[in-house]
Amino acid sequence: MSGDEECQHVVMASTGIVRAPPTVGGGIEAYVTDLTRILVAKGVDVTLVSPIRSPAAFPGAEIVDVPTSFDSFPLKPVSSALAHILGGVSTARAVRSCVSNGAAKPRAVLHVNEEISASVLLRALPKVPTVFTLHNPPRLNGSSATGPADSILRTFGGEWTRRFVVSRADRVVVLTHYLKQYLADEWQVPPEKIAVLPLPLDTDLYVPRREPHDGVRVLFVGRFDLRKNVMVLLHAARHLGPEVRLTLVGDGPLRESIDAFLEAHDLQDRVTLLSRVSPDELIRIYQESDLFVLPSFLESYGRVVIEAAACGLPAILPDAPYFSDFRDHGFARFLTEFTAEALAAAIDDLARDPSLRERMAQAARRFAVETNGYAGFGPRLKALYADVLG
User: Fold this and answer.
1) What are the distances in angstroms from CA 148 to CA 92, 103, 187?
2) ∠ Cα 295 218 236 (to 5°)
């Protein structure tokens, strides 16, 4: 590939909702943060259009700040929908101003990461080669348990995405092979238009660091809501011995229900709830844990699984299609029936076998570095942009 064929400038558009880098929640904002840093390190000019927490976090990138009043997720469904509308329109206006004023250099690519701003931009800027990353998965089979409000918003969001973004972007990036197959089969998107790029992660930052401790520490990181299915983990805790300790990191609409459950079943001494932890604190929590559990009903990828894997944590996951790219790599145990009893049995099995946990921990670290590490991700991303530019 000659230098003339390479992408020279990327306009990276975030959601316009949560500041980047995010401190709590904000998976898309974490994604654009990683991509921006990777591209700058590879010598690509990047204009980052996003609410910005600290420009110093993006050395070498041009910053276009988008005003926002939000710092973190989760939000309630209606508030989330309103935030996406306002944030998407704000981002679209900022990108359009940036491109219309001639800021986009030759061989430039626009990379959008949120449906509303993308739909506006793809109408207003039809001549700009565009890559769209689908972060919010469509309403897949089995996701009805996420609750009626979430299901309604996800259904309409999926239609909006399909009609105004996926069908018009030059390339669509998905995070798993399952989502690529879904878009090809259900939305009739040409397979050659879809690229699979797993989430990038700074695996020099997320690293294993074990300190001796008593018992087995089980960790959950995510929103306390129906989609994450966090209550099944609390029910499982009732079947576990006192040597197993559980830490839940997150917040959300189920927080009061969780507090009530812990009190009703006298689990306060064995279950720790943590909210609003900093990124550095979260890494330390990963490093102090022995096992990671994510019972989620629906994911686009599961960034926290990879964060945990990079820190050397084995995982217990539902045997669901959205986790299929994690299979056959030796670091996760998959449960076909994710009941409290089955989950408790799986945790107990791994708790009793430290040598197996160690083998799984090594496989987890190896998978995260090879699949998600910055070093391997950069060339794949640049190749995608070059393909879009032709």
Assistant:
1) 29, 43, 23
2) 55
The strands making up 108-112's β-sheet, listed across from edge to edge, are 62-65, 45-50, 9-13, 108-112, 130-133, 171-174, 194-196
DSSP string spanning 143-158?
A: GGGG-HHHHHHHHHHH
Give one DSSP letter per residue of 35-69, joined into a string: HHHHHHHTT-EEEEEE-BS-GGGSTT-EEEE---S
Give domain 3-200+373-389's CATH architecture.
Answer: 3-Layer(aba) Sandwich (3.40)
**What would the two tokens of residue 358 be?**
């160690």
Separation CA 379–CA 124 (nearest Å): 30
Q: pLDDT of 118-143, one tens digit each?
A: 887 877 766 789 999 998 776 654 44
Please provide the distance, in angstroms rounded to a whole number, between the alpha carbons at the two ends of the chain. 11
Write the Ramachandran bin of 99: left for phi over 0, alpha for psi from -120 to 50, otherwise beta: alpha
pLDDT at residue 362 above 90? Answer: yes
pLDDT of residue 1: 38
List Cβ neighbours of 382 (8 Å cut-off, separation of 6 or more).
6, 7, 39, 42, 44
| Separation between Cα atoms, residue 114 and residue 84, nearest integer Å | 8
| pTM assigned to the model | 0.89
Structure tokens at 7: 């992408």
CATH architecture label of 216-371: 3-Layer(aba) Sandwich (3.40)
Q: What are the start and end residues of each CATH 3.40.50.2000 domain in the chain?
A: 3-200+373-389, 216-371
pLDDT (tens digit per residue) in 12-50? 999 888 889 988 777 889 999 999 999 999 999 999 999
CA–CA separation, 240 vs 344, rounded Å? Answer: 6
Percentage, residues of the chain above pLDDT 90: 63
Residue type, 165: V
Rounded CA separation 14/28 (Å): 7
Cβ pair 84, 114 in contact under 8 A: yes
Cβ 92 vs Cβ 128: under 8 Å: no
66 closest CA partner among 13, 16, 119, 121:
16
Task: Report the distance separating Cα 348 and Cα 38, nearest Å.
Answer: 40
